[in-house]
Every structure is written in structure tokens, then in C-alpha cells.
Automatic annotation (TrEMBL):
Residues 295-415 form the Mur ligase C-terminal domain. Gene3D superfamilies: Mur ligase, C-terminal domain, Mur-like, catalytic domain. One of its GO terms (molecular function) is dihydrofolate synthase activity. This is Uncharacterized protein. PROSITE patterns: FOLYLPOLYGLU_SYNT_2 (PS01012). Belongs to the folylpolyglutamate synthase family. The keyword Lyase does not apply. One of its GO terms (cellular component) is cytoplasm. Keywords: ATP-binding, Ligase, Magnesium, Metal-binding, Nucleotide-binding. Residues 46-270 form the Mur ligase central domain. Pfam families: Mur_ligase_C, Mur_ligase_M.
Length: 431
């Protein structure tokens, strides 16, 4: 871990003064030195502004329910860096993670020699994942893009399936400046042999995706969709349709109508991959095992504590709708919120329906890009509900629990890093 942390971590500096043009040169050199393991296993590549993490985990469960071994790579991690490299949605253990990183470390000097630069933190982890999956002979790789698509380190594969969940106004300062530019960047994962699953429905953005060279294209609300979506105890019951047919009365044990849309995409992705309809019992078995850490995750009941990694206004809107529409409460909930540069905290609080909360506690994760709690508190000072500033997430969560009382509700959100710290604290308290 000390060796890994000694490498430049772009995630810690997003929105900073990046001057180097994007390039896959280091990543391609690294993969060549490893023997191009990314080409040895069929791949599903998933990008999008929101929902790609949930969709990826669903795809892993669906393929796993058919009896195949599935490797997956995602970012950022929630609890530990091991979470980024998983088989069957289970992170590598420490011994395996050490071996995976060590194999990349062995070839790193040659990357420096050939490109003049060391690979960065994200590139090392991505390369370690591709190499480990090839060495352990998994059957399918499910790869989540870190940011954008075209220049993302994951994009050294030619995926059988390229999935784009949606397009939003996130990271415009890096992959913008327009949403059309963002769409072109995300569509950069599509290759001529890719079957594209498109979750975006805005016509002008769909046109950009359609213009890519691809093998086939399925569009949300055209080739696949959610036919029925009903609130149920502990989740939702949904009917899904794809070009291969219909799946009825499928229970998904997760919260929010947006997860029905993610489930529809996941089923479409897997049916496109296999070229046939999945059996209903396979779909039911897969979703019965589904867990989505930090995605509107109910961590405790008295008070009700919900952890959500929403970090941009569209995701905040979804979280708010799930909270206020699906979880009826007698008293206004308490919001614990921390966010990162360069996001606008007021836009986020507007989207989360901040005026409907009884109190807002401004906090900050232990993360270089975190907006300081005091700065956040000042920005929200005149917003409406009482604002408290508590610098550390653990203390902010304890204060929220105190304010909510036994019968209240606490929502912790604003970034995956805030969600992670709160989640770890609650897990530690329950042991």
C-alpha cells in the first residue's frame, strides 16, 4: 500500500490545474509489458454519469447466476482499496491484492523507461485487475469506467458490450464543457464490434451515441424498458422487457425507482452478451443476492440511518425522491452532508430538497478535495433549516443521531467518501 500510495492519484486532484493532454500511452505500455491480459477475456464496459456502479454489480450477479466466474473492476473504493478488484462481487483478500500489485511493480521500471513517466495510481489498479483476472481465468470481465470513457485507463479493451447508463452535467470542467462533449467522451468506449446498451434518452445525445461505429444498439424505452415498477417491503417488484421477451414479478432488494432502471439495463446487458433471454429463475436468484453498498443503503432502523454516495445534483434528486416518496416519516429527517471540489454545494442541497429537512449538518470527509465543513456551513448559512458545522464525519453522524432521536431519520450523503466514513463507523459500532 505504501508503494501504491507513492503514485500520483488523479482522484485526489480532479478539478485542479491539469495541463497534460489525456493519453493512454502509459496504460498501453503497461499492458504490453504484462502480455496484454485485457484481451484474453470477454469484457463488458460500463460508463455513465450515475448508476454505473449499481448496474455493474447487478451484471456481475446476473452472469454469476448462470454459473460463470465474473471479475469486476470499479472505482472509487468504499471501504478498502481491495474493493476495486473483485470476483463475484467479493474483493480480493490481502494476499491476492499484494500479489496482483507486485506483478505490476515488476514491470513498472520499463514503463518509465519507454514513456518517461510512471503509471499513476488508477492505472496501476486497473492493470492489476486485468492481469489478475487473466491469471485466475475468470470467464467475463465487467469493467466500470472511472471518468469519461475515451481516455479512461480502463479503455484498453474492445468490449463485447458497451453500456452507457446516462449523461449528466458532471465533470464538465474536465470532459466538457458541454453535455454533448461529455457524451462523445463516454461514447469513446464503443468499438466497431461492440453491442451498445444506451440508457440515455435525450434525442440529441442518443444521436451522438448512434453515430459511433458499433455492432448493434439497444435503447432504453425503445428496445428495453421497465414495464412495471411497484414499491414492496424491502425493495421493489418490477417487470422488465428486452428484445428477447419479458420478465415479470422480479423482486429487487434495493431502494429507489432508479434502481428498477438500472436493473432493466443490467438484464439487457447480460441478454445482449449471451444473445438470448435469461431464465426468470436466474434473474430472480441474481437479484436476491444483490447488495449495493452506499447506494441508499439502510444501515440502522432506530433511528433510521441511510447512507448514499450521491455526489452530483441528478443523483441527489434521485436520493431525495427515494427518501421522501418511499420512506414516510412523522418528523423531518436530518441531513448530514459533505461534498468535494469543484461541486457547488448549494446546487446539491437544492437537488436533495434541503428545505424539507429538519436540520442540516455540514461536514467533510478526510479527502484532499473535500470542501471544509466551515466553508460548507457558510455557503448554506441562509438556506432555511438550522445549519450546524461539525468538521469530522463521525462526530457529524453522532450529532445527527442525537437530533433525530430514536424515531427519526438520518440521511448521510454528498460524496462517496463521506458515505464510506459513516458506513465504516456504523459497522464498527455494530461489532
Amino acid at each position: 500500500m505504501d508503494w501504491l500510495k507513492d503514485h500520483y492519484n488523479l482522484e485526489q486532484h480532479l478539478g485542479g490545474n491539469e495541463t497534460k493532454p489525456p493519453s493512454l500511452d502509459r496504460m498501453r505500455a503497461l499492458m504490453t509489458l504484462l502480455g496484454d491480459p485485457q484481451n484474453e477475456i470477454p469484457a463488458i464496459h460500463i460508463t455513465g454519469t450515475n448508476g454505473k456502479g449499481s448496474t455493474s454489480r447487478m451484471v456481475v450477479e446476473l452472469i454469476g447466476a448462470t454459473g460463470l466466474d465474473v471479475g469486476s473492476y470499479s472505482s472509487p473504493h468504499i471501504d478498502r482499496v481491495n474493493d476495486r478488484i473483485m470476483i463475484a462481487n467479493e474483493p480480493l483478500n490481502d494476499e491476492s491484492m499484494t500479489r496482483a500489485l507486485a506483478e505490476v511493480a515488476e514491470v513498472e521500471p520499463w514503463v518509465l523507461k519507454s514513456t518517461g513517466e510512471k503509471p499513476n495510481y488508477f492505472e496501476i489498479l486497473c492493470a492489476a485487475a486485468y492481469n489478475w483476472f487473466a491469471a485466475t481465468a475468470v470467464d467475463v470481465n465487467v469493467i466500470e469506467v472511472g471518468m469519461g470513457g475515451r481516455w479512461d485507463a480502463t479503455n484498453v479493451i474492445e468490449a463485447d458490450i458497451a453500456a452507457i447508463t446516462n449523461i449528466g452535467q458532471d465533470h464538465l470542467e474536465i470532459i466538457g464543457p458541454t453535455v454533448a462533449d461529455v457524451t462523445r467522451e463516454k461514447a469513446g468506449i464503443v468499438s466497431p464490434n461492440s453491442h451498445v446498451i444506451c440508457g440515455e434518452t435525450t434525442p440529441e445525445l442518443v444521436d451522438i451515441i448512434t453515430e459511433t461505429q458499433h455492432r448493434e444498439l439497444w435503447r432504453h424505452q425503445t428496445e428495453y424498458d421497465v414495464a412495471e415498477d411497484r414499491l414492496a417491503v424491502g425493495g421493489r417488484v418490477i417487470d422488465l422487457v428486452t428484445p428477447y421477451g419479458r420478465h415479470q414479478d422480479i423482486f429487487i432488494p434495493v431502494n429507489g425507482s432508479h434502481q428498477a432502471q438500472n436493473a432493466a439495463m443490467a438484464v439487457a446487458v447480460v441478454e445482449a452478451f449471451f444473445g438470448q433471454q435469461l431464465d426468470d429463475d436466474v434473474v430472480s436468484e441474481a437479484f436476491a443476492r444483490l447488495e449495493l453498498p452506499a447506494r441508499f443503503e439502510v444501515m440502522q432502523r432506530q433511528p433510521l440511518i441511510i447512507i448514499d454516495g450521491a455526489h452530483n445534483p441528478p443523483a441527489a434528486t434521485v436520493a431525495a425522491n427515494t427518501l421522501f416518496d418511499d420512506f414516510a416519516a412523522e418528523q423531518a429527517p436530518v441531513l448530514v452532508m459533505g461534498t468535494n471540489r469543484p461541486h457547488d454545494p448549494v446546487e446539491f442541497v437544492d437537488a436533495i430538497r434541503g428545505k424539507e429537512f429538519g436540520a442540516i449538518i455540514a461536514t467533510a470527509a478526510n479527502w484532499p478535495r473535500a470542501i471544509p465543513a466551515e466553508t460548507l456551513g457558510v455557503a448554506l448559512r441562509d438556506y432555511g433549516p438550522p445549519i450546524e458545522t461539525v468538521p469530522h464525519v463521525a462526530d457529524a453522524l453522532n450529532r445527527a443521531i442525537e437530533l433525530a432521536g430514536e424515531n427519526g431519520t438520518v440521511l448521510v450523503t454528498g460524496s462517496l467518501y463521506v458515505a464510506s466514513e459513516a458506513r465504516s463507523q456504523l459497522h464498527s459500532a455494530s461489532r
